[in-house]
Amino acid sequence: MEGHTKMLFILGLVAIASISEIYRVEGAGECGKNTTPDNEAIKLAPCATAAQDENASVSQSCCAQVKKFGQNPACLCAVLLSNTAKMSGVDPKVAITIPKRCNFANRPVGYKCGPYTLP
Q1: Alpha helix (H) ranges present in 1-119?
Q2: Would you state the pLDDT for residue 116?
Q3: Sign of CA dihedral 9, 53, 3, 45
Q4: What pLDDT, in 10s, does the model give residues 74-95?
Q5: Most distant pair of Cα atoms in the chain: their distance
Q6: pTM of the entire structure?
Q7: Is 48 helix (H, G, I), strand (E, B) or coil?
């Protein structure tokens, strides 16, 4: 069942990102000039379970993807709060705990992420 749920999550991300690409506005956003937070959210597919359940273990592939976003906290927040993430069932209160759960020493502690603060 978990494999089925993960596949549906990934397919949902792809579909939403494809739709959002149609309506993309040119300009530099939180994640750079050539992408959007919705497009970047697809890269966090390995974090599907960890972003919905704070007691779920965080995979190494999830931590590797989040670490890439950790270089740009504004992008990480935009991705975690994106429409793609919301429509995929991501709980922002849980998702923002992933950097801490990955034991990143240089995570953006205290960074304001919308109404949330990174632990």
Answers
A1: 2-22, 37-41, 60-70, 73-80, 83-87, 92-95, 98-101
A2: 84
A3: positive
A4: 999 999 899 999 999 999 999 9
A5: 40
A6: 0.71
A7: coil
Return d(Cα 88, Cα 93) in angstroms, integer: 14
Phi, psi of 51 (to 5 degrees): -85, -5
Residue 87 CA to residue 41 CA, distance in Å, equals: 11
Q: 102: how many CB neighbours lie within 10 A of its CB? A: 20
* pLDDT tens digits along 22-41: 444 444 688 888 899 999 99
Residue by residue, DSSP assigns 19-38 as HHHHTPPPS-BTTBTT--HH
- Which letter, b or e, does each residue of 55-82 get, where b requires 16 or more Cβ atoms within 10 Å of its Cβ? eeebeeebbebbeebbebbebbbbbbbb
Task: Provide the pLDDT for residue 12.
Answer: 52
